[in-house]
Queue: 2 jobs
Job 1
Amino acid sequence: MVQIDAKILVNEGIGPQRHKMALYAPQIGRQAKPGQFIHVRVSNNFPPLLRRPFSIHRVEGQKIEILYKVVGKGTEILSEKKRGEYLDILGPLGKGYRLPSATSKISDIILVAGGTGVASLLFLAEAISVANAELSILVLIGAKNREELLCEEDFRRLGCRVEVATENGSRGYKGLASDLLENYLPLSEDRPKPAVFACGPSEMLKRIGKISRKHRFPCQVSLEERLACGVGACLGCVVKAKGSSYTYKRVCKDGPVFDAGELIW
Ligand SMILES: Cc1cc2nc3c(=O)[nH]c(=O)nc-3n(C[C@H](O)[C@H](O)[C@H](O)COP(=O)(O)OP(=O)(O)OC[C@H]3O[C@@H](n4cnc5c(N)ncnc54)[C@H](O)[C@@H]3O)c2cc1C
Ligand code: FES
């Protein structure tokens, strides 16, 4: 993990309140694994006092990318940054996704993304297609409406099969990405189990956790809780997990990626 002032190479809008930012950060890019995040100080002024976490979306050469949605003050300040300015960032942080090994007995990979949850899953899809090109990857992307669907073409370019769901039915299946997963699974009941990786709103992850228990497939989820320190020191981000009775895990340090089965939802 390093703390650097990273030069902003690109900061552009890619949809309603959605932006992509590229940063010159070779030190972070070299170490980054899918599912890890950077912690960004969006301003030298206060507020906002705390850094804001964003998944590493892609690593390309010397640059890293994040994909973010403007939801409040911090992300609004971030969206106003210009090319050539510098950002104080910390990373890569957290434990990322565990990639399936070449010998694992899984039929294929299913990635389920809700909203900006696609950010970490594109990096994961790239890593899987390099490490294990034999595995087929199905990507299920959900958003409120067609304008908010992200990264479809990026996944297709990698050779992934992509299905989309929108809550208002303006594109693809009318409903949620978790519905697409549930509809797909009975078809594959007699085949080896897929491995599922999911990132998105907590309600979606909770639902996917339930589906994974019912159909007994391995499932990793990446949580997007609110963070404070981001490095495991303040206990401000704990979630309840299974222990001898129960225990607490830090999203920033023990996660943000967890086995769905280890969490108490
Ligand atoms: C490990 C991790 C990775 C993340 N990756 C991404 C990413 O790739 N792209 C992206 O757009 N966002 C991501 N997030 C969420 C992002 O960090 C928050 O949206 C951001 O910090 C909000 O800052 P803000 O100052 O704009 O909003 P605030 O002013 O702090 O909050 C505005 C509104 O958003 C809600 N909110 C703020 N943070 C969160 C959160 N973490 N979860 C749910 N609701 C929240 C608040 O309750 C409030 O209603 C990630 C979060 C974590 C923990
Ligand atoms: S945010 Fe401080 S321990 Fe996780």
Job 2
Amino acid sequence: MTETKNWQAQTRMVHEGQNRSAHGETAEALYLTSGYVYDSAEQAEARFKEEEDGYIYSRFGNPTVRAFEERMMALEGAQDARATATGMAAVTACMMSQLQTGDHIVAARALFGSCRYVVETLMPRFGVACTLVDGRDLEAWQAALRPETKLLFLETPSNPVLEIIDVQAVADIAHNHGARLIVDNVFATPILQKPMALGADITIYSATKHIDGQGRCLGGIILGDGDYIKNELANFIRQTGPSLAPFNAWVMLKALETLHMRVDRHCDNAEKLAEMLVAHDKIERVYYPGHKSHPQYDLAQKQMTRGSNLIAFDMKGGKTAAFKLANRLEIAHISNNLGDAKTLITHPATTTHAKLSDAAKAELAIRDGTLRLSVGLEDSADLLNDFEHALAELG
Ligand SMILES: Cc1ncc(COP(=O)(O)O)c(C=O)c1O
């Protein structure tokens, strides 16, 4: 591991975790190996007895994966981390590694669909009860606590209409109860919001999104204090195998070198587009945490450095107008992914949140005319033109 001294985050994102081989390569080496050989049978025995440091098998440790984990630890200010094959593997492993039958989770109801499935459907099958609350309502978090509550779980900004939850206040509620708070920080990115600095115990990412940022690889990561990672999570990952592939880790590791610049550019473009959408007469309402019109703008300002690249908006004219706009845009592509260099737009009611009941959609303000936009890295004037033309053509 590189000695990082007092370097700033951007410098650390270029150097942290590099473990040069004897060849002295400039770029980080890709250790594309599933296993490792030992100098002797005695050495193998010592590794398995944990008397000697060193790699044993890539399901539970690989130098390239470790380099990615160390770079992410530096960015997040976390003591330790474990990378996983996907964001959902991170969410599931994080919960399964610390819960048992009889425990209880309180989660914000505005969650990515698969996260909601894990807490609402999967965990109860193993005797872990779950209560969903409106995450913006601090009294609801408090009221949902039970003696057996072990975990509080939220994402902020939330998918798809970008509700903001007060991380510090929910962390206090969790800690006063002896529970832990997990924050899925995907929408905010590790650049714009630091959940652990706000009091969260564990931060989770789908690295598939902005961390890769170019739509290539799936990946995830769980960051937290050394005790939890070493004593609870590491063995769970070792035994059950949701591990990140070395190749994907290498792509993510290299992508961290440009994450600051990319997120800044994403936000520049999103701010301009949000401003234009707010003023447009074919748009009913816009949700963008970085715009003054957002109902929780002050809270967003308090815990995020910028508004992110996600914008949601409701079209006047409902589903017909929303579909027409999505179909007419030329630069923005229709895709349910997000955090990509390419601008992507999706209609949550018929894609990412299609499985929710009408009542659940209404609770989350997912309307027929709602579109969610992940603003990319294109030229901002081209993007504005694309939206202006497509909106004008709606008639
Ligand atoms: C907020 C959030 N959490 C978790 C995930 C899951 O990540 P992955 O697709 O890498 O499994 C996603 C994916 O869209 C997401 O948006």
